Amino acid sequence: MEGKWIVGVDLGGTSVKLAFIQEDGEILHKWEIPTDKSEQGKNILPDIADSIQRKMVELGETKERLIGIGMGAPGAVDKEKGIIYEAVNLGWPKNYPIVKLLSDLSGLPVEIDNDANCAALGEMWKGAGNGAKNIACVTLGTGVGGGIIVNGDIVQGVKGAAGEIGHITIIPEGGAPCNCGKTGCLETVASATGIVRVAKDTIIQYEGESSLKDLYISKGSIEAKDVFDCMNQGDTLSASIIEQIMLHLGLVLANIGNVLNPEKIVIGGGVSKAGDLLLNPLQKYFNQFAYSAVSASTELAIATLGNDAGILGAAWLAKNKH
Amino acid sequence: MEGKWIVGVDLGGTSVKLAFIQEDGEILHKWEIPTDKSEQGKNILPDIADSIQRKMVELGETKERLIGIGMGAPGAVDKEKGIIYEAVNLGWPKNYPIVKLLSDLSGLPVEIDNDANCAALGEMWKGAGNGAKNIACVTLGTGVGGGIIVNGDIVQGVKGAAGEIGHITIIPEGGAPCNCGKTGCLETVASATGIVRVAKDTIIQYEGESSLKDLYISKGSIEAKDVFDCMNQGDTLSASIIEQIMLHLGLVLANIGNVLNPEKIVIGGGVSKAGDLLLNPLQKYFNQFAYSAVSASTELAIATLGNDAGILGAAWLAKNKH
């Protein structure tokens, strides 16, 4: 068999996704291991190195096949120093030198970036970005993440905090508290968690008939997907909740559009599976709030890679370094 | 005399600023000519070429002294094609090929960019940016302009519309109409014109004592500077007007900070002459609305070059091309 492989790693708080990926971006082998957060996360990097080694043995391959490891990590990183400033979810100490540690453990060169940035690079390379070199990505998951790509490279920012789209303030006064310590962040409204919060607040105050309200009463809880599903089945309360959320998200994306006028703004994460139910109202508010030349030229698109965006973007990092 | 010169040109709706500038950014000779907008602006570029030629003769120099011309123009440009999409204030037809025309007239290579982008490059090179390669600039003048610099280069955007900070929507519903056709743009609040509008609206509804109100009644009009001056003399109405405006501007700059985490955000234009009267409340709201890692690392700074930013940034364009 010909060709070199890249190891793409997407390190999350629950599991680590790994893959061997060809230089053209084709995923050859993909697997997952649990993230062991015990003992301040000291086993995480050894587990990753071991797992890569075992998979190579299993496939009858040697290390010469591998170009290097690219890894997305859940926190702001300093790529030059090879450290992650803070990774609260993993238990690691501050400024943990993950590049040196993983490189020593694996005997391979290692490149890192923030996980949201990796997802953005993946979408640029093989997904909705479709090779566009200037894109903004927003990931609507449990939280809201972002990645900004200018001229084909991630914008890191002076302290690794570029792309913090989830913490753009959309409700300057009286907004809901956010995990970051501020209030009224986009994340409090447009994440899966935020959608549920807004929906519950709205349901409680609503006195009319609604299938979403009925579902909430019968199940005792709802998910973001329920709101889109009920809207799709004609529930007007659900439609008004989604409108309210897309107004805020559309405003933020329009403002990012005015700043960067990117070719595409790619919307990913679990919430983006709503597809056109999300995209149609979002496009309406984007057009309303963006400068005319921006709404005419910056395209909104749903991410296409799903969970593979992170490992592909991580692999892109390693490929383009070496 | 040693060394080559660059011609920096800042083309405005009323006058054209020109300068001969050394490669290290020192301005050697600086002058202005009126902008002749008659006959669809057909005399503007010939006037510029003539004026450069006359000044060279006056100084006893020949064209060999000149590296080229850099010019900032009042509208979105396509740098590759060398055209300005639209320059409503000058009367030029759409997609006017200014690079070819000025190059033919002057016999010199010509580089162009939007005037706000040139001001940003000037501040990066010789002003408040102080060599920082990642900065955002906002110009608070008659309107509000912007320029975004990533890795030392202006972000143009797919249709030249990056940096349209003035048209970021800050009042989603019920905002004042903007010249761009939308409502509630930053420009309607934080430009010199916007400050006057907000001040007048506030004065009319205010029944208490206020030196700003007295000034408005006696003069029949006020300027943005009056609001800062009255605030500085202890007028509480003026202070509340500036607070309200800085809340909106601080929110926009915090959101730009969250997207790009630049080293500096530079505030220029006539309104920025208010200095600390502007910067202090602005910094307060920036800190309130920005993600903590952003407010800790992105610095707000007042532009230092004044009217020279445009010619210096234009010269930088020509210097870095050749």
What does this entry look like structurally?
Two copies of one chain form a homodimer. Chain A is of the alpha/beta class. The first copy, chain A, has two domains: 5-121 and 308-321, Nucleotidyltransferase, domain 5 (2-Layer Sandwich), CATH 3.30.420; 131-302, 2-Layer Sandwich (Nucleotidyltransferase, domain 5), CATH 3.30.420.40. In chain A, 42% of the residues lie in helices and 20% in strands. In chain A, strands 3-2-1-4-7 form a five-stranded mixed β-sheet. Chain A has a five-stranded mixed β-sheet with strand order 10-9-8-11-12, with helices on both faces. Chain A starts with a strand and ends with a helix. The mean pLDDT of chain A is 95. The interface between A and B is large, with 48 and 47 residues.
